[in-house]
Amino acid sequence: MIAKLLGIAKPLVLAPMGSVSGGALAAAVSRAGGLGLIGAGYGDAAWIREQFQHAEGARVGIGFITWSLAKRPELLDLALSYKPCAVMLSFGDPRPFAAKIRQSGAKLICQVQSLAITRQALEAAPDVLVAQGTEAGGHGGERSLFALLPAVKDIAGNTPVLAAGGIADRRGFDAAMALGADGVLIGTRFSASEEALTSPQAKNATIRTTVFDVVRNFDWRGITGRALRNKFTDTWQGREAELKQRMDAECKAYYAAVERRDFDTALIFAGEAVDLIDSVLPAAEIVRRIVH
Amino acid sequence: MIAKLLGIAKPLVLAPMGSVSGGALAAAVSRAGGLGLIGAGYGDAAWIREQFQHAEGARVGIGFITWSLAKRPELLDLALSYKPCAVMLSFGDPRPFAAKIRQSGAKLICQVQSLAITRQALEAAPDVLVAQGTEAGGHGGERSLFALLPAVKDIAGNTPVLAAGGIADRRGFDAAMALGADGVLIGTRFSASEEALTSPQAKNATIRTTVFDVVRNFDWRGITGRALRNKFTDTWQGREAELKQRMDAECKAYYAAVERRDFDTALIFAGEAVDLIDSVLPAAEIVRRIVH
Predict the structure, then answer these.
(1) Binary contact (A146, B150; C-beta < 8 A)
(2) By CB neighbour count within 10 A (0-12 exposed, 13-18 middle, 19+ buried), where does B143 fall?
(3) CA–CA separation, B285 and B289 (whole Å)
(4) Which long-range contacts (CB under 8 A, 24 or more apart) does A44-52 make?
(5) Threshold 0.90, pTM exceeds
(6) Touching check for A204 and chain B: CB below 8 Å?
(7) pLDDT for the residue numbered A200
(8) What is the pLDDT of residue A204?
């Protein structure tokens, strides 16, 4: 059902990870039978153009951070000019964008992290919901997939639901389907693919944190992101107020570390599934291993 | 395999919930084909005797909080005098108790919340591991079941692994088995059974918290417990230091609320699966609905 709806052979969607899910990775997932979504992140017009070009005509979609898109709505027009087959919205009210997306012919995918957010998303009449468990890398909520997914499914009516968070192999795919999912959305496993723009540098424990948002001056209003633990999280987790007071020095030091690719300080978003990843593989091989 | 090992017909074990899993509930789960574990909690000799009597000769086991048992090891001798078929240990080093449990003929079940804790538990050569996701009610760790369970299974060798946390219906059972579990351990769903000593009074959101341990003066050393949100957690979460300074008044007020069963203040442990529970049922019917 979801495969037919999205026009794909396998019920697997690439999470639109900012700085990771570029056009090449999205195209590779789509060519392997799934659906690749370019990760627009906070939004940069030149970067979006470039990634659609890297997709080389493959049938791909794109994902936005809703609250960030609301500040620069022209980026949606830019994305729609490339005729994406789907647009995914997360973290914010999708209703202001729903009509325009549907009129373009793209499917609207809304990601949700709780039952309250699900009820709000359903008001936008999305084609697909994504129930994102707290296992997922990057920003997300506090609910775990195991109990969130069936609860979302119970109130979603006929809207299909993809499972996201913690899925990295066939076991996770089968478990998600057993919980009632119509398919899966996978991020972290594909960050360790040959086509990813950046990959995790370490198989480390993850933590939900705001410290990287504080130091980068992004206002996520309490929504935490799951990232690999490193010296920076060990230093600042629980001392966010102090970090804010030292922003001048710390922000400069942080971006200097990013520049020299020093991942003792720089952020790498990753989900709990990092434990299950042992090798960097071509994206098509990852798709083949996960979906029967 | 696990069924044969534990001498049961269905691979389902009742979580030894303190103040909830008494002898009657444990016996009902065992008579329905699973394995009921009495929840010894912080340990009270008279209560343990009473609950074994309420089990009326049914084949049941018992579960202890390991760090609490270490302060009163004589409670293990008391429990073993009732010939439990299994003893489950959680939260602490199981090694000092392993030999005595095995010599009694009981199976040793060790509950784990991370890969580091799994490695320690394996040194006690347990008969069974329980991988407890953060979805679970009561005390637990930070890892979600979806990615924790396969990672534990990958290092457990031949030791069977039960899945715990967030499982309340057949979907959860099937998903756990898909993730590689040998069976499931279920708490919250049975707290809404006719035989439970106490039941959730509300279908509310849950939260991982230390505030109830602070006000009750239990030293869990940073391990949080998942409980229903109420006015007490809304008031004190994030203000634990202030709560400690006001202990004289707040501790008295807390226990007065417990006394009058005021659940705006009093603790009810519950897992994320509360969303999936719509009715109080006989324990045997719950077993029948979850396991094929």
Answers:
(1) no
(2) buried
(3) 6
(4) A45/A74, A45/A75, A45/A78, A48/A75, A48/A78, A48/A79, A49/A78, A50/A23, A51/A22, A51/A23, A51/A26, A52/A23, A52/A79, A52/A82
(5) yes
(6) no
(7) 72
(8) 80
Token duo for residue B39: 């929840």
* Rounded CA separation B149/B183 (Å): 11
> What DSSP state is assigned to residue B292?
-
List, for residues B168-198, the tens digit of each pLDDT value: 999 999 999 999 999 999 999 999 999 999 8
pLDDT digits over A12-51, tens only? Answer: 999 999 999 999 999 999 999 999 999 999 999 999 999 9
Give the C-alpha separation, B207 to B220, whole Å: 16
Q: Order of strands across the sheet with A107-112?
A: A12-14, A183-186, A161-164, A128-132, A107-112, A86-90, A61-65, A37-39
User: In whole angstroms, what is the distance from residue B271 CA to residue A22 CA?
Assistant: 38
Q: Over pLDDT 70: what percentage of chain B?
A: 99
B176 has a chain A CB within 8 A of its CB: yes
- Among candidate residues B226, B183, B141, the one with its CA nearest the CA of residue B29: B183
Dihedral angle over CA of A209, A210, A212, A214, nearest 10: -160
Cα-based distances in Å from B3 to A32, B10, B26, B128, B162: 41, 6, 17, 11, 11
User: For residue B249, how far is the Cα from the chain centroid?
Assistant: 30
Dist CA B15 CA A134 (whole Å): 24
pLDDT of residue A33: 98
Contact B179 A180 (CB under 8 A): no
Strand order in the sheet with A206-209: A138-140, A224-228, A206-209
Q: Are the CB atoms for A146 and A133 separated by under 8 Å?
A: yes
Q: Is B145 on the interface with A (CB under 8 A)?
A: yes
**For the ranges A158-172, B59-73, B200-214, B274-288, which has the lowest average pLDDT?**
B200-214
For the cut 80, the answer to whether the pLDDT of residue A161 exceeds it is yes
Q: Does B174 contact A at CB distance below 8 Å?
A: yes
Q: Which pLDDT does position A198 carry in this prediction?
A: 82
State the nearest Cα–Cα gap between A169 and chain B, in angstroms: 9
State the number of CA atoms in the 13 A half-sphere of A229 facing the CB: 8
CA distance A14 to A183: 11
Task: Tell whether ipTM is more than 0.85.
Answer: yes
> What is the tens place of the pLDDT at every residue in A209-233?
999 999 999 999 889 999 999 999 9
Arithmetic mean of pLDDT, B114-129: 97
Hey, how many other C-beta atoms are within 10 angstroms of the C-beta on B235?
A: 15
Q: Is B285 left (phi over 0), alpha (psi -120 to 50) or beta?
A: alpha
The number of helices, as runs of H, and strands, as runs of E, in chain A is 15, 11
| Angle, alpha carbons A86-A89-A94 (nearest 5°) | 115
Element (H, E) at A61: strand A61-65
Q: Is the pLDDT of residue A108 over 90?
A: yes
Residues of A in contact with B115 (CB under 8 A): 275
- Residue B167 distance to chain A (closest CA, Å): 7
Q: A171–B151: do the CB atoms touch at under 8 Å? A: no
